[in-house]
Amino acid sequence: MSFKSLTAFLALIAVANAAVTRRVACPDGKNTVTNAACCALFPILDDIQENLFDNAECGEEVHESLRLTFHDAIGFSFAANRAKTFGGGGADGSIITFSDIETNFHANNGIDEIVEEQRPFITKHNITAGDFIQFAGAVGVSNCPGAPQLDFFFGRPAAVAPAPDKTVPEPFDDVDSILSRFADTGFSPAEVVALLSSHTVAAADHVDPSIPGTPFDSTPFVFDTQFFIETQLRGTLFPGTGGNQGEVESPLRGEIRLQSDSELARDSRTACLWQGFVNEQAKMQSAFKAAMAKMAVLGHNVDDMVDCSEVIPSTKPVTGTAHLPAGLTHNDIEQACATTPFPALPADPGPVTTVAPVPGS
């Protein structure tokens, strides 16, 4: 091929690529997208950032919206759907559409509050519950410094049936049952640990009702690796059942640790995966984004959906650095990974850390 012919050929490729990536102006006169269907999301974005997430804060509604993405999507079973026996529709919004059923499941205790907060937005913007739940989760977590910018695919049909009970793992479940339940939805142990990165911006209201709004790590408004550090601190399992079922005592006053998190952090199948996120912010972000992308489309074929990930706001950089809480040393770490030492971390100065509850819980 002559130089002149090659130049002409490359010019044609450039024109073709430009046509593929041509952007469409939205009716609002300020946004452009690669697919016009995504324009419908900008009014929803503006509305929920102001009126659901309190002007784009990483607060209680973000925590609960992120929790809702999981509780809706995990109600699914590949094995059951193949067998045509039981199995919900995955990330289909059934937890809102059939809230009179699903919010009564034990594992969904307390989820009714965010369900009722989100419902008016769904009605106002004429969007399916499945799309809204995953969109709100992705937008909400973008408000938390350190979080990845999550993907969002648009086009979930309305749910046709409630998810079955006992498909959502609970804090007092053992590691075998948790990994088995996730495996039934197509998630590996590594992806389970990645999804639990969400607990870095989470708090418990109903594990122990006597202490509502208790966070899982000392930085509940920052998407950082402190969760993976602080679950490795030595703690005491509360015996028996009742209000403390599923709870492990943390050495940090004001912090709660789920029994399931504590056991996953120490189980031979997941301990090194868990420790592998300590002080590895980029690794945690990447793994969480990939696992969430998979979870958010459970029960759907992405070929039938529109990629509107560009509508999700850009995220903010992480604040602070990985550290041991004040008053603690490396000796307070309960080493669980048999092959790699726990990373050396600086300790915050001052007296033993006290963690404040999350407001609004």
Automatic annotation (TrEMBL):
UniProt GO MF annotations: heme binding; metal ion binding; peroxidase activity
Report keywords, A-Z.
Answer: Calcium, Disulfide bond, Glycoprotein, Heme, Iron, Metal-binding, Oxidoreductase, Peroxidase, Signal
Q: Where is this site: Transition state stabilizer?
A: R67
Cystine links in this protein are C26-C39, C38-C308, C58-C144, C272-C337
What is its EC class?
oxidoreductase
Matches recorded under PANTHER family: CATALASE-PEROXIDASE, THYLAKOID LUMENAL 29 KDA PROTEIN, CHLOROPLASTIC-RELATED
Q: What is this protein called?
A: Peroxidase
